[in-house]
Amino acid sequence: MTTAHLKTNELLNRLNRAGITATYDQAETLRRAELTLQRWSEKECGDGNNYSSWNIQRDEETGKPFMHIHPHTGKSYRYKIADREAGALKRIAAICKELGIYYFHQTDPRGCALYVWTEPIPSNNYTKAVACCN
């Protein structure tokens, strides 16, 4: 049994204990979408090396995401990237609609990126919900 399979089973058990009757496939979709959102948040905060730094930024007019590269010497540039955040949120919304539950997307990369619950989740108390990360 793979680690991913074990983590999905653990999430499925947590959902069931909270009264959320999800299938394995639904739990796997939520877990994988959380991983996508987690990585997206990390990239929004940025990273770097000895030659440049980079981060994801959305265009202010279109809302489309771009990877911004800031070389330590030379001119900064950007290139368009796939909007993985929007795709993950769309998958999450579809699963939550199927299950009749609510979700909260927490954008700080230092914590779990996705929480689900049977009631609407307030932004000031989202940790009472089921965390979809391991």
Summarize the structure.
With 134 residues, the chain is an alpha+beta fold.
Characterization of the model:
This protein has 134 residues and is an alpha+beta fold. The chain has a domain of 92 residues. It is built from 3 helices and 7 strands. The strands form 2 sheets. A 4-stranded antiparallel sheet has the order 1-2-3-4. Helix 1 packs across helix 2 and helix 2 runs antiparallel to helix 3. The longest helix has 22 residues. The protein is elongated and about 55 Å long.
Category from helices, strands and their pairing: alpha+beta
Helix and strand element order: HHEEEEHEEE
Radius of gyration: 17 Å
Helix content: 25-40%
Characterize the biggest β-sheet.
Answer: 4 strands, antiparallel
* Uncertain residue ranges: none
Question: Could you give the topology of this structure?
Answer:
Layout: H1 3-17, H2 24-45, E1 47-48, E2 52-58, E3 65-71, E4 77-80, H3 84-99, E5 102-105, E6 114-117, E7 130-131
Helix pairs in contact: 1-2, 2-3
Task: Quickly list its features.
3-stranded antiparallel β-sheet, 4-stranded antiparallel β-sheet, alpha+beta, elongated, 134 residues, 22% strand, 7 strands
